[in-house]
Design a protein that fits this description.
Elements (H helix, E strand, L loop, with lengths): L2 E6 L5 H14 L9 E6 L5 E4 L19 E8 L5 E2 L2 E3 L4 E3 L6 E5 L13 E3 L2 E3 L2 E9 L16
Antiparallel strand pairs: 1-2, 2-11, 3-9, 4-8, 4-11, 5-10, 6-7, 6-9
Length: 156
């Protein structure tokens, strides 16, 4: 994988705290049960295999220690440009995001019903030239009951 990461709490830096407030304002999701901000660096060759950010039914204890339910959503911020490679790809839907410093991506990992959205399977392609820096914020179910848009179709 060739990834190095660290976790930052809101109390660690005013920048981290401001980012959490921004994410809350943009998504209308509470950050009270979100994980700490993960900062990750992918050097040359750094990549991440296809995966889901949510825990599948077979992984029912994956986030038990957090006491906040499953990961309802993901916010990914690109902290650097990458000269070549390093795209985030979503193979099921055929989409990709090229790292661009200052840009961000947001997606729901779970349907309104709480079921995992298998269309969110994603990967980080290998960095070929340069370095890729990202910040991940994983937002959990607890505390979102009245914040997520109400849809008639629970599988939307």
């Amino acid at each position: 994988y060739f990834i190095f990461s660290a976790w930052l709490r809101n109390e660690d830096s005013s920048v981290v705290s401001r980012l959490s407030r921004l994410i809350e304002a943009v998504t209308n999701l509470s950050m009270r049960t979100a994980e700490d901000l993960q900062i990750a660096n992918y050097g040359v060759g750094g990549h991440y295999e296809p995966h889901y950010d949510f825990a599948r039914k077979s992984e029912k204890d994956a986030f038990l220690g957090l006491g906040a339910g499953n990961r309802i959503a993901t916010w990914l911020t690109y902290l650097s440009d990458v000269e070549q490679g390093g795209a985030t790809v979503f193979p099921v839907v055929g989409g990709h995001l090229k790292p661009k410093k200052g840009s961000a991506a947001f997606w729901y990992n779970l349907y309104a019903s709480g079921e995992g959205d298998y269309n969110t399977r994603h990967a980080a392609c290998p960095v070929l030239i340069g370095n890729k820096w990202v910040a991940n914020k994983w937002i959990h179910e607890r505390g979102q009951e009245f914040r997520r848009p109400c849809l008639l179709d629970p599988m939307a």
